[in-house]
Amino acid sequence: MRRVVFNQKGGVGKSSIAVNLAAASAARGLRTLLIDLDVQGNTSQYVLGAQTEALPGVESFFQNHLSLYSRDTTADLIHPTPYENLSIMPSGRGLLELEHKLESRYKMFKLKEALNDLGAYDRVYLDTPPALNFFSRSALIAADTVLVPFDCDTFSKNALYQLLETIQEIQADHNAALKLEAIVPNQVPARGKVPHALIEGLRAEGLPVSQTTLSSSVIMRESHERAKPLIHMNRSHRLSREFVALLDELEGTV
Question: Over the range 226-249, which residues count as b (16 or more CB within 10 Å of their CB) and which as e?
């Protein structure tokens, strides 16, 4: 199962959701791979801290596909994290410099092909940049399902419809099996009528909004700073339990 966390809007919690779901999957004994396709590298820093700077990963993977002489395999670019069963292919600062060359040579299917050949993981989570570019398209082509983080405000709701059209376009043109698995309400305040009304409105439209919502909490910032996913930092915290509940919902174990 390959899940891509995708939203063209920044600051909606893509990296937080990708990392914490992956960490929860790995904690259950599932061999789990994170792939960080965002040049900002937030997912990489979240699980590796400062050591991510020295590790080859996604940048090298795509650079290899522009060269006829590369000796690296995909497995060479995947690294263990401090957490059992959790591995990562980290981001790289030179990704954007490669984008035009990769697009012009139509390399969008290379990630899917590599993951098909790799076949060593029970779960793969792909974090994407906050834009519809070569790297997010590559992830959508490689994935089985899409998770869409949703900030509970009117602007996000309006942007959501455009995003759903983008997913439908990828389905029609490149990946017919791609499924919108869930729209995940994130940073939902405990009180406030507008966010909850927006969520219920999306559900009334028949959209696959997860029953589990993720709370807003300062512990997430602390988790980022310590480079420690919530399940490993404070398993009993409300937000940690929400991520576990969300994973249960996605995996069909509730």
Answer: ebbbbbbeeeebebbbbbbbbbeb
